[in-house]
Amino acid sequence: MNVSSDAATNAYAAILAGGSGARMGNPEKPKQFFMLGEKPILIHTVEKFCAFPEFRKVLVMCPEVWLQQTQDLVERHCPQYKDRVVLVAGGVERNDTVMNAIAFLEQNCLVDDDTILVTHDAVRPFVSHRIICDNITAAREHGACDTVVPATDTIVESLDGCVISSIPNRSVLYQGQTPQSFNLRKLKELTSSLTDEERATLTDACKIFVLRGERVVLVEGDVANMKITYPQDMRVAASLMGK
């Protein structure tokens, strides 16, 4: 799917790079800085979004203590994009980080009622051109979208962690990926309306729309759009990179 320049003139990307390396066995180094081939995982992801001229800026949201190192990595590995990539400190939780991105854009960039924000995990470096295009288009047309793939395994619910509580119908279940993309001002408005109790239940920004009865359309993902979380994921990623 192609995105016309008119349709995406006011679009921004936010790469969420606030994860730690704990589950990768290295709590001192966030996993997005692990090397994948000749570049850190984060750089592979940033390059995917910088390849889109539709994005006015590509924000990299990372822990404040890693801002300078991230800037150095961008300048070393993709200096051609250094004027389009902006480093911004993330928040404590995922949705705090998204709100920090919105605050930065409102204070420093052109934002209007049609502005869209495409958010993506830094550790999903294999996101495709088609998925990004589809997110831009869906966010433009519907205000919110989530990238998903159909669930292939049976999902088992256990409320106590010991016995099965229910087994939902797999045919209506999907596994969430990213990007997740939104009309920027709508996302800010809905987030501001949440109670403390509702905020405590959040797992991602799409749930904000769901809690307020707003439609979130589905964008078809791809099993290759994997999230690198555990050491074994690095082996799979290295294999994909080799291809």
Automatic annotation (TrEMBL):
InterPro entries: IspD/TarI, IspD/TarI_cytidylyltransf_bact, Nucleotide-diphossugar_trans, TarI. CTP binds at L16, A17, G18, G19, G91, V92, E93, R94, N95, D96, T97. CDD domains: CDP-ME_synthetase. Its EC number is 2.7.7.40. Coiled coil: none annotated. The record marks R23, K31 as: Transition state stabilizer. Pfam families: IspD (PF01128). Transmembrane segments: none annotated. It catalyses: D-ribitol 5-phosphate + CTP + H(+) = CDP-L-ribitol + diphosphate. GO terms for molecular function: 2-C-methyl-D-erythritol 4-phosphate cytidylyltransferase activity; D-ribitol-5-phosphate cytidylyltransferase activity. GO terms for biological process: teichoic acid biosynthetic process. Keywords: Nucleotidyltransferase, Teichoic acid biosynthesis, Transferase. It is an enzyme of class 2 (transferase). The record marks R170, K227 as: Positions ribitol 5-phosphate for the nucleophilic attack. NCBIfam families: PRK00155.1-3 (NF001183). Belongs to the IspD/TarI cytidylyltransferase family. TarI subfamily. Catalyzes the transfer of the cytidylyl group of CTP to D-ribitol 5-phosphate. HAMAP family: TarI. This is Ribitol-5-phosphate cytidylyltransferase. It comes from Paraeggerthella hongkongensis.
